[in-house]
Write a structure and sequence with these properties.
Blueprint (H helix, E strand, L loop, with lengths): L1 E5 L3 H13 L3 E5 L2 H8 L9 E5 L8 H11 L5 E5 L4 H8 L5 E4 L4 H13 L8 H27 L4 H39 L2
Helix pairs in contact: 2-3, 2-6, 3-6, 6-7
Length: 201
Protein backbone atom coordinates (compact mmCIF):
# COMPACT_ATOMS: atom_id res chain seq x y z
CA UNK A 1 0.00 0.00 0.00
CA UNK A 2 1.43 3.38 -1.08
CA UNK A 3 -0.09 6.51 0.44
CA UNK A 4 0.64 10.18 -0.19
CA UNK A 5 0.17 12.19 3.04
CA UNK A 6 -0.33 15.92 2.48
CA UNK A 7 -0.08 18.03 5.64
CA UNK A 8 1.63 21.36 6.36
CA UNK A 9 1.71 20.92 10.14
CA UNK A 10 4.96 19.12 11.02
CA UNK A 11 3.67 17.86 14.37
CA UNK A 12 0.60 16.31 12.75
CA UNK A 13 2.46 14.82 9.79
CA UNK A 14 5.25 13.31 11.90
CA UNK A 15 2.73 11.67 14.22
CA UNK A 16 0.56 10.10 11.52
CA UNK A 17 3.35 9.20 9.11
CA UNK A 18 5.20 7.34 11.88
CA UNK A 19 2.05 5.40 12.79
CA UNK A 20 1.28 4.51 9.19
CA UNK A 21 4.82 3.31 8.57
CA UNK A 22 4.64 1.23 11.73
CA UNK A 23 1.58 -0.42 10.16
CA UNK A 24 3.67 -1.27 7.06
CA UNK A 25 2.17 1.45 4.89
CA UNK A 26 4.57 3.01 2.38
CA UNK A 27 4.10 6.76 2.99
CA UNK A 28 5.38 9.76 1.07
CA UNK A 29 4.97 13.17 2.71
CA UNK A 30 4.13 16.42 0.91
CA UNK A 31 3.70 19.77 2.61
CA UNK A 32 2.02 21.72 -0.19
CA UNK A 33 -0.61 21.03 -2.82
CA UNK A 34 1.83 21.73 -5.65
CA UNK A 35 4.32 19.20 -4.30
CA UNK A 36 1.54 16.63 -3.81
CA UNK A 37 0.46 16.89 -7.45
CA UNK A 38 4.04 16.56 -8.69
CA UNK A 39 4.53 13.45 -6.55
CA UNK A 40 1.21 11.84 -7.56
CA UNK A 41 1.79 12.37 -11.30
CA UNK A 42 5.33 10.97 -11.37
CA UNK A 43 5.33 8.24 -14.02
CA UNK A 44 8.77 6.97 -13.04
CA UNK A 45 7.63 5.43 -9.73
CA UNK A 46 4.88 3.07 -8.61
CA UNK A 47 1.54 4.93 -8.37
CA UNK A 48 -0.03 5.84 -5.04
CA UNK A 49 -3.06 3.89 -3.88
CA UNK A 50 -4.57 6.80 -1.94
CA UNK A 51 -4.00 10.41 -0.89
CA UNK A 52 -4.63 11.76 2.61
CA UNK A 53 -5.09 15.50 2.09
CA UNK A 54 -5.40 18.24 4.68
CA UNK A 55 -7.86 20.86 3.43
CA UNK A 56 -6.06 23.85 4.94
CA UNK A 57 -2.50 23.90 3.61
CA UNK A 58 -1.53 27.44 4.57
CA UNK A 59 -0.40 29.80 1.83
CA UNK A 60 -0.94 28.89 -1.79
CA UNK A 61 -3.05 26.05 -3.15
CA UNK A 62 -5.69 24.58 -0.83
CA UNK A 63 -6.22 20.86 -0.37
CA UNK A 64 -9.52 21.09 -2.26
CA UNK A 65 -7.86 22.72 -5.28
CA UNK A 66 -5.03 20.18 -5.21
CA UNK A 67 -7.55 17.32 -5.06
CA UNK A 68 -9.50 18.79 -7.98
CA UNK A 69 -6.34 18.92 -10.10
CA UNK A 70 -5.47 15.36 -9.11
CA UNK A 71 -8.94 14.26 -10.18
CA UNK A 72 -8.12 15.55 -13.68
CA UNK A 73 -4.65 13.97 -13.79
CA UNK A 74 -5.49 10.71 -11.99
CA UNK A 75 -9.28 10.29 -11.85
CA UNK A 76 -9.05 6.87 -10.22
CA UNK A 77 -6.88 7.99 -7.29
CA UNK A 78 -8.95 8.21 -4.06
CA UNK A 79 -8.40 11.40 -2.06
CA UNK A 80 -9.41 11.43 1.60
CA UNK A 81 -9.71 14.85 3.19
CA UNK A 82 -8.61 15.64 6.74
CA UNK A 83 -9.86 18.77 8.46
CA UNK A 84 -10.64 20.27 11.84
CA UNK A 85 -13.64 21.98 10.25
CA UNK A 86 -17.03 20.33 9.74
CA UNK A 87 -19.09 23.43 9.00
CA UNK A 88 -21.40 23.52 6.01
CA UNK A 89 -19.24 25.82 3.88
CA UNK A 90 -16.14 23.64 4.27
CA UNK A 91 -18.07 20.45 3.54
CA UNK A 92 -19.71 21.94 0.46
CA UNK A 93 -16.33 23.13 -0.79
CA UNK A 94 -14.84 19.68 -0.23
CA UNK A 95 -17.64 17.97 -2.16
CA UNK A 96 -16.57 19.81 -5.32
CA UNK A 97 -13.44 17.62 -5.47
CA UNK A 98 -15.45 14.38 -5.06
CA UNK A 99 -13.35 12.96 -2.19
CA UNK A 100 -13.36 9.29 -1.26
CA UNK A 101 -13.67 10.22 2.43
CA UNK A 102 -13.66 13.03 4.97
CA UNK A 103 -12.03 12.74 8.41
CA UNK A 104 -12.75 15.31 11.12
CA UNK A 105 -9.76 16.10 13.34
CA UNK A 106 -9.04 14.78 15.87
CA UNK A 107 -9.62 11.23 14.67
CA UNK A 108 -8.45 7.78 15.75
CA UNK A 109 -5.86 5.75 13.88
CA UNK A 110 -8.41 3.01 13.24
CA UNK A 111 -10.62 5.60 11.55
CA UNK A 112 -7.73 6.63 9.32
CA UNK A 113 -7.04 3.03 8.29
CA UNK A 114 -10.75 2.40 7.71
CA UNK A 115 -10.99 5.47 5.48
CA UNK A 116 -8.02 4.28 3.41
CA UNK A 117 -9.53 0.82 3.08
CA UNK A 118 -12.91 2.18 2.00
CA UNK A 119 -11.33 4.58 -0.48
CA UNK A 120 -9.08 2.02 -2.12
CA UNK A 121 -11.76 -0.68 -2.26
CA UNK A 122 -13.90 1.50 -4.55
CA UNK A 123 -11.07 3.07 -6.53
CA UNK A 124 -11.04 2.87 -10.32
CA UNK A 125 -7.95 1.33 -11.90
CA UNK A 126 -5.39 3.64 -13.44
CA UNK A 127 -5.65 4.14 -17.17
CA UNK A 128 -2.67 4.53 -19.47
CA UNK A 129 -4.05 5.56 -22.85
CA UNK A 130 -2.08 8.17 -24.78
CA UNK A 131 -4.71 10.79 -23.91
CA UNK A 132 -4.62 9.96 -20.19
CA UNK A 133 -0.84 10.12 -20.11
CA UNK A 134 -0.79 13.45 -21.93
CA UNK A 135 -3.31 14.92 -19.48
CA UNK A 136 -1.29 13.65 -16.53
CA UNK A 137 1.97 15.02 -17.95
CA UNK A 138 0.29 18.35 -18.74
CA UNK A 139 -0.88 18.75 -15.13
CA UNK A 140 2.54 17.72 -13.85
CA UNK A 141 4.25 20.15 -16.21
CA UNK A 142 2.13 23.02 -14.83
CA UNK A 143 3.07 22.18 -11.25
CA UNK A 144 6.78 21.66 -11.97
CA UNK A 145 6.76 25.06 -13.69
CA UNK A 146 5.28 26.58 -10.52
CA UNK A 147 8.08 24.97 -8.47
CA UNK A 148 10.69 26.25 -10.92
CA UNK A 149 9.35 29.79 -10.84
CA UNK A 150 9.29 29.74 -7.03
CA UNK A 151 12.90 28.61 -6.91
CA UNK A 152 13.93 31.28 -9.40
CA UNK A 153 12.12 33.94 -7.37
CA UNK A 154 14.04 32.89 -4.27
CA UNK A 155 17.33 33.04 -6.15
CA UNK A 156 16.54 36.47 -7.59
CA UNK A 157 15.73 37.67 -4.07
CA UNK A 158 19.41 37.02 -3.24
CA UNK A 159 18.70 34.12 -0.90
CA UNK A 160 21.35 31.54 -0.05
CA UNK A 161 22.71 30.48 -3.46
CA UNK A 162 24.44 27.35 -2.16
CA UNK A 163 21.13 26.04 -0.79
CA UNK A 164 18.91 27.04 -3.69
CA UNK A 165 21.02 26.30 -6.77
CA UNK A 166 20.92 22.48 -6.30
CA UNK A 167 17.15 22.69 -5.84
CA UNK A 168 16.81 24.79 -8.98
CA UNK A 169 18.98 22.38 -10.96
CA UNK A 170 16.93 19.40 -9.76
CA UNK A 171 13.63 21.03 -10.71
CA UNK A 172 14.96 22.10 -14.13
CA UNK A 173 16.04 18.50 -14.75
CA UNK A 174 12.57 17.30 -13.75
CA UNK A 175 11.02 19.82 -16.15
CA UNK A 176 13.28 18.66 -19.00
CA UNK A 177 12.22 15.06 -18.29
CA UNK A 178 8.53 15.96 -18.43
CA UNK A 179 8.98 17.89 -21.70
CA UNK A 180 10.84 14.90 -23.21
CA UNK A 181 7.99 12.54 -22.25
CA UNK A 182 5.45 14.89 -23.80
CA UNK A 183 7.50 15.02 -27.01
CA UNK A 184 7.80 11.21 -27.11
CA UNK A 185 4.07 10.65 -26.64
CA UNK A 186 3.15 13.41 -29.08
CA UNK A 187 5.56 11.92 -31.61
CA UNK A 188 3.99 8.51 -31.16
CA UNK A 189 0.54 9.93 -31.77
CA UNK A 190 1.73 11.59 -34.98
CA UNK A 191 3.16 8.28 -36.25
CA UNK A 192 -0.03 6.42 -35.38
CA UNK A 193 -2.15 9.04 -37.15
CA UNK A 194 0.08 8.86 -40.24
CA UNK A 195 -0.18 5.05 -40.36
CA UNK A 196 -3.93 5.21 -39.91
CA UNK A 197 -4.29 7.74 -42.72
CA UNK A 198 -2.03 5.66 -45.00
CA UNK A 199 -3.62 2.26 -44.48
CA UNK A 200 -7.12 3.62 -44.04
CA UNK A 201 -7.25 4.78 -47.62
Amino acid sequence: MRVLFVEDCTEQSDFWVDRLRAANVDVTLAVRGVDAIVAATDLSVAPFDAVLMDISLGDGMSGVEAAARLRVARPGLPVIFMSAHDDGDTLEQAKLAHPAGYLIKPFEFKDLLAAIERGTSHAMPDTYSDHDLLVRIDVRLDMVTVQLNEARALVSAKADQETLEPRLTKIEGRLDSVILKVAMIAGGLIVIEALFNHFGK
